[in-house]
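Fold this: Recombination protein RecR
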Amino acid sequence: MVEPPSLEKLVQEFASLPGIGKKTARRLAYFVLTRPRERAEALSNTIVEACDKVKRCSQCHSFAEEDPCPICKAREGSRSICVVEKFSDILPFENAGIYHGLYFVLGGVLSPLDGVGPETLHIPQLIQRIQTEKIEEVIFALGSSPEADSTILLIDKLLAGVPVKRSSLARGIPMGSELEYIDEVTVLRAFESRTGI
């Protein structure tokens, strides 16, 4: 059976989303087509509305409908800044209520093989913000990949001579995990980051 061209185009659009494979894209397309037309129009209108209203905050590069974003506005004067790779990395901190400082969305991590160099990221704006706002602590929450480590090392080098405390999230074994199923790098980092009892 050959799918109609418009259906195949819809499948391709869904498949272009991150984390969506061809099978899932096809399932989503079929789902949309089996719903009442009003639901499809509501989805379409919601996407267009979000594209029209949601912009990047000029200070932290997170998504917001106003500039500066509500977090930058409410926490103006804070002396700590948490550096994350993408906007969705802010949500766990906010949902847990464990951090009450500023954020900065870097826009990715260094990955020369993917064509992501320092000029692609918001590194100059981060350095400027740290200096002009007299930030006292920079918390790196960029993950645990070699690319993230390279990004942190570059920023640390660019901050040489700037009197700011630098820290990164602890890395270790997730709660409830069995040691035999944990990869060697995670075990090594957990061992190196061990704390006293």
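The domain at 5-53 is CATH 1.10.8.420 (Helicase, Ruva Protein; domain 3). The two ends are 65 Å apart (CA to CA).
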